[in-house]
Amino acid sequence: MADPVPIFKRVLLKLSGEALGGADGRGVEVTALRAVADEVLSIKGLGLSIGIVVGGGNLIRGAKIGDEGIVRVAADQMGMLGTVINSIALQSIMESKGCQTRVMSAADMPKFAEPYIRRRALRHLDKGRVVIMAAGTGNPYFSTDTAAALRAVEIGAEVLLKGTKVDGVYDSDPMVNKGAVKHRELTYEQVLSRKLGVMDATAVSLCMENRMPIIVFNLTRPGTLRRVVEGEPMGTIVKE
Q1: Is 35 part of any domain?
Q2: H or E segment to which residue 131 belongs
Q3: Which of 145, 153, 157, 208 could form a disulfide with 199 if both were Cys (CB 3.0 to 4.6 A apart)?
Q4: How far, in Å, CA of 147 to CA of 125, rounded?
Q5: Distance CA 128, CA 34 (A)
Q6: Could you give the angle at which helices 144-154 and 201-209 cross, rounded to 10 degrees?
Q7: How many domains are contained in the chain?
Q8: Is residue 202 part of a domain?
Q9: 183: β partners
Q10: How far apart are CA 132 and CA 147, in angstroms?
């Protein structure tokens, strides 16, 4: 029997900052970084072109501290810096495993990362490098979910893969409600009208306008990412 082949050629992987933290999703945990790197390398070995957008919630949540007294613009800028820290950490681990990686930042900081320029990002991807896109969109009031949707469209990804700690989208919080029902497939309109929280409304709307499918899956289960790109019906898919 022939080995499975990927159904995508280029993907955008959205990672929450919590995925890089410890058991409580806080800080930067090397064990978690290695686990994520191994998952990415497992699909890169299939010949995929991979872009990554990382959140910063393990270090700081701009919206939350903005509600607590810090000016929202400043709070969001702090959150962007958190994503840069995470991106540099992930790059270091991936390169220690022999994977050529570039960090590109939407905020200018040439001593730490290349500036995000779409054409340059495409060249890196065409050369087989994993491109980690940091600092969100570079603007306050926009989440890293929205940044992921934007970058997915810009680099010509065929799908936006959102790695989480749950195995899809449920009708209620499965951590609280043991009877929560998992959705195998949803439309963009259903996600928006039911406020299911797959991604924020701006991100979902951008994906809908550009017909960018979203697959939500459990990244913490080894091998799941590879099974997703090989076409197995894992997690929840959001599409037209």
Answers
A1: yes
A2: strand 130-134
A3: 145
A4: 18
A5: 20
A6: 10
A7: 1
A8: yes
A9: 169
A10: 12
Q: How far apart are CA 229 and CA 6, in angstroms?
A: 5
Structure tokens at 72: 């929202």
Token pair, residue 107, equals 């905020």
* pLDDT at res. 173: 82
Structure tokens at 76: 């969001």
> pLDDT tens for residues 139-187?
999 999 999 999 999 999 999 999 998 899 998 888 788 889 999 999 9
Tell me whether residue 5 is in a domain: no
DSSP secondary structure, 68-128, as one string: TTS-HHHHHHHHHHHHHHHHHHHHHHHHHTT--EEEEESS--TTTSEE--HHHHHHHHHTT
Asked if 142 and 173 touch (Cβ cutoff 8 Å), the reply is no
The structure's pTM equals: 0.94
Residue-range definition of the domain harbouring residue 153: 10-239
Which residues have C-beta within 8 Å of that of residue 192, sequence separation ≥ 6? 201, 204, 205, 208
Q: Is residue 3 part of a domain?
A: no
Give me 171's structure tokens.
Answer: 């009708």
Q: Which residue has the tokens 């969001």?
A: 76
Report the CATH number at residue 174.
3.40.1160.10
- CA-to-CA dists, residue 153 to 35, 90, 211, angstroms: 27, 23, 9
